[in-house]
Request: fold
Amino acid sequence: MLSRVLGGGWVLLAMAFAATTLGVAVGSAAGIYAAYVRGRIDGLVMRTVDVLLAFPQIIFALLLVSLVGPKLWLIVLAVGISHLPQVARVLRSATLDLSERDFIKVLELQGMRTHRIITKELLPNLVSPLMVEIGIRLTYSIIIISGLSFLGFGPQPPAANWGTMINTNRVAIVANPWGVVVPALLIALLTIGTNTFTDAVARVTIGLERRTEEAALLESAPT
Amino acid sequence: MGEMPTPLAIPLRGIAANPVGFAKAVPGSASTVLEVRGFEVRLGEHGVAIVTDVSFDVAAGEVLGLVGESGSGKTTIALGLLGHSRRGLAIAAGEVRLNGVDLLSIPARQLRNLRGARVAYVPQDPSAALNPALRIGIQLREALSSHQIEARAIEARLADILGEARLEANVLRRYPHQLSGGQQQRVALAMAFSCRPSLIVLDEPTTGLDVTTQRHVLDSVRSLCCLYDVAAVYVSHDLAVVDGLATTVAVMYAGQLIELGPTAEVFSRPGHPYTRSLLDAVPSPERAHVLQGIPGQPPPPGRRPQGCSFSTRCPWVIERCRMEAPTTQSVGNQQVRCHRASELRGSMERKMLVPTVRPVTSKASLLSVEALDAFYGDSQVLFGVDLTVDTDRCLAVVGESGSGKTTLARCIAGLHSNWKGKLRFDGQELARSARQRPSVALRRIQYIFQNPYTSLNPRHTVEQIVSQQLRQFFEIKAHERAERTRAALESVSLNERYLDLFPDELSGGERQRVAIARALVVEPEMLICDEVTSALDVSVQAVIIEMLRSLQQERHLTMIFITHNLALVRSIGQDIIVLRDGRVVDRGPSEAVLDHSDEAYTRQLMADVPRVEL
Reply:
């Protein structure tokens, strides 16, 4: 039983990470590029995003999976794609604000190439929204993937999975409540855990690089 | 540790018992409205002292000018006069008595009733202070009705106050964004005066306004204060503004009041070296003098030195200043916190005129602009602008906001590409946008932005920021890059210590110097400076202007210096063009234009420049 619980968790975590990486990487690339270049490309990207947004996340994933069958890579892909629009929108607005700053104009006056401006100059300033996005998307991935497997679209038995375990054990919920409660608790714990973890990472990346003025003030305060 | 918060130099009782009467110096000021005694603000209840031992009086009908560099604690005091402190700060001691009532000890509810009614506040940025979703009329009525004024009385009061603030009745139906900056500020003034307060606190209300608008707003402030016998505290970093308005001036430095007295006397015979230094940094529209910056920065709270807080930057420092914090002493009508006050007062003259001998070069023009029309979308902002900039000379482009001066600079630099006309640089035509220009052309024209807080990438170190520029334009080895970076920083007086710092570890002036170093490191021939000092204190402005002037002469730079401040032109510009609504209305050598122009607009601008009368 324990080995099934742990094994199930491992698969879920791996899938969630893969889906998040896919969603955040593609979504932020599209969002940042659109915001920096503006014009027609911006319009195209954002309208595509709007169309994607029109699909409800879970239904979209269900649709794909029921069409092709419950393949792991397909679930990862479906969940990843469902993250795209939100990530793209958030990163786009963060970049819009940033790309109007004068230090970007300075680089344009140097004739620096667009992709260099994006990777070397804009990206370091987008670390905190990116980290926040990764955190949120990771927790969503966990919830959607376990939801899907609860509905029977996840990894198929005999492979173990928390969502599937809840589903199969719920029949016997009165006789053996732990079969449901443990995987459900684990899902909750994992979700909360990833969230606090990425939050901490975001804080560290902002705070450690440079001391803020206030921190300096407080530090010099006689105690 | 090791550093102690600046000790209270004077026992609170002492000054309360003996309010040396500068207020008395103002004839006819019968009643003291505001009394501040031993006011102190700390970071948290027992943290570092931000502002210590501030005491002053303001009488009815009197304007007190509160001046100092940024970070000196001016705004902290201004807010304290309303019984408020910013988040994280706490009012730790002292009294703020308004008509005898101590605002710091009354209950919050009572204080709230007093605010707006008895004491009003005019913020620095009216566009942020007015609610963008409500019509002006609603906001003004709201201000009145929240203080139990009857409905019928409100309309009458509204009509009065509009007239006094020189606003048309139709502004009532408008939204804030439909008004100009000057009108917005007058609405804020009207709102503040509407409940007939006895004290009004103005926090740099004219910063960011054009000289002409500024003069109108100042006129309104003056006449309103006079009319209603209101006591006013006017916070400003601009000594020239204070000079024309305030009867008394209080100079702040590092959280302390260092000089207090009648404005005319303080400005003509300052008793504190800091006041003298501030005055020397103010550019004069009449005479070109060398602007004396104040080297270094004010010590931040918690790092203030043992002795006099100005001792680290003071040219008149003696040993005693470093050991012992000075107490306030009276010299004439002034109260000065300096050991050497009586000996130094009025004897610190050191103004130097700018050498008028200027390099007379062959009149070869480096840049020529012909019939330049520029557009934002469909609206045209520049109309047929013609100009030439001669090699090695500095052309000042002057105009009010909205005159198109920044657009002109951006067209030349290639940042704004929606224009028609001809741009020639060193005989070659320049493409419309920077993207279409060859790398060489980009290198030869460098642009320095107005706001050093946004022009440096916050995630890069100073070294990365400066050497990045070299990487882009030159194929050179890493060690040579480091060498040139260091040399460029040295030319703007920043030593190696700065290489590894991030922009937010620097002060505004230091950031602007990094921006200048970034431009200079690629050895440009032309420098475009777009209002480079408008975000800086006068003392820092002086340093930057002097630095630019000497760099221009040493390196034979051709310069375009964009500014709204005519007084600065006198110190740096050799030629001048005046822009108005996108058209050139006046041009010529700067002395000729500034002193005896035929153009009425230029003369008007000159007349509106606030100045320190000496």
Q: What stands out?
A: Chain B touches chain A through 40 residues (CB under 8 Å). The two ends of chain B are 44 Å apart (CA to CA). The CA atoms of residues 80 and 91 of chain B lie 7 Å apart.
